[in-house]
């Protein structure tokens, strides 16, 4: 099993809060972004790399590539795994990546979404996807920063 210190859903992927606060708190040395679009967008990758502290590597893989190779990660790689959406997490889970918990960070407002916490907005599809992820035995915890107490997302749906 790869050394995944935490897995986070954040629609901004890597930004200051993830690159600095989460990575440093966890003592991660690798931030792995699993997202089909960003895996091929070098401009977005470069922008995200700018907020990552020196000494922490980044990798940007598609969902399928992440599922296929993450089990080959070296134990010395202390990984913070980041996905953009619960749909990406469900795909990873269905492709065989079984984690005990996903931290839900930022899911911003857009049309058709309702607020379930200060930083999380969901639509009906998100709710169904979160329920499917939960049915795999995965805990879903809303947490902005590592020091937050956290709320169980499934109880808010």
UniProtKB/TrEMBL annotation:
Span of domain PTS EIIB type-4: 1-157
Matching SUPFAM superfamilies: PTS IIb component (SSF52728)
Main location: cytoplasm
One Pfam short name: PTSIIB_sorb
Catalytic residues in the record: 15 (pros-phosphohistidine intermediate)
This enzyme's EC code(s): 2.7.1.69
List of residues that carry Phosphohistidine: 15
GO molecular function, one term: kinase activity
Enzyme class name: transferase
Top-level taxon: Bacteria
Protein name as annotated: PTS system, mannose/fructose/sorbose family, IIB subunit
Organism listed in the record: Streptobacillus moniliformis (strain ATCC 14647 / DSM 12112 / NCTC 10651 / 9901)
